[in-house]
Known about the structure:
binds pyridoxal-5'-phosphate
Amino acid sequence: MKYAVSERLIWLNGELVHVNDARINVLSPTAQFGLNVFEGIPCYWNEEQRQLYAFRLDDHYKRLQQSADLLQIDCTYTKEELKKALTDVVKANDYKENLSVRQTLFVEGFGSWGSEGPVGMFVAPIPRGNTSAEYNKKGLNVCVSSWRRISDEDLSPRIKCGANYMNSRVGQREALRNGYDTCIFLNKAGKVSEGPGSCLFIIKDGILITPLLTDSVLNSITRDTVIRIANNHGIEVQERTIDRTELYTADEAFLCGSAMEITPILSIDKVNIGDSGHDSIVNILHNEYVDIAQGKREEYLDWLCPIY
Ligand SMILES: Cc1ncc(COP(=O)(O)O)c(C=O)c1O
C-alpha cells in the first residue's frame, strides 16, 4: 500500500483525490436522506500469484444499475467506466491486500429527496486485513428481531440504497443491546427473510434451504455463489419460504454476504444450532468460497477480474 488508510486516495467524480478532500455538500439529498445506491465489492489478494481479484464485478454493476433505475438515479457511466474507476483507484493506492471497495452513486447539490440530480460517484477502497476466515470460525449468536424487514410494498429490500440500512440498523442495534452478535429479520408475512447485511441459509438433513428472493431479501451475490457451489458439490438446494420454527430445528445455519463471507450461526434466540466443526457443510462452503475468490479454482475464473 502506497498510502496509510488516513492518506488514501478516493475516486470522486472522475478524479483521484486525497480522502480528506473527497467532500460533499452537507445539505445534499445523499447526506440528508440517504439518497444513494452502492455496492460493496470484495477484492481478494492472491499472494502466490501477486494478483488482486475483484469478485463478480459484472454482477455487482448489474445490481448497482438496477438499484439506480428503481430509485431513478441516472447512472451515466458504462460498465467499462465503472470498472476503470475501481481499478484506477485501487492501483493508485497500490493495494495488495483484501479489500471491500465501496462504489456509490449519490445525489449531490442542494435538492431534496425528490431531486433527480446532480448525480455523483465515489469509489473508496477499504482494506479488510486478512480474509475474515478466523473471525468466521467463531460463529454468531443471533436473535430473531422484533422488527420486521422492509418489504417490496414500501421500501424494497431489492434496492441496495443507503436508506434501506436504517431498517438494518434498528435490528442490529436491538440485537447488540440484548447481547447478541446480530439478528435475523422476519418479513411482513412473519416468514424468515435475512440478516441486517447478509442472507440466511439453514441446513436440514443435508439440504441447503434459503428464503425466496420474493421473501424480502436482497438479491445477494454471495447467496447466488453459495447456491452454485452447492450445486457443483451435488448438495441439494431449496429456495423456499422458511417458517420461524425451522430456524430452531436446523442442523446448521449461516449468514452470508460480501462482507461476512460465510459465517456459521451458533445459536438463535439462545437455542444452540448444530455444530460448525471441521467437516460441517458451512465449513466446506466457506473454504471453497475463499479459494474461488482468491483465484485458486480454475473453473470459477470467469467470476474474477484481475486488477493488476
Ligand atoms: C440486507 C443485505 N442482505 C444481503 C446482503 C449480501 O449481499 P451480497 O452477497 O451481494 O454482498 C447484504 C450485503 O450487501 C445486505 O445488506
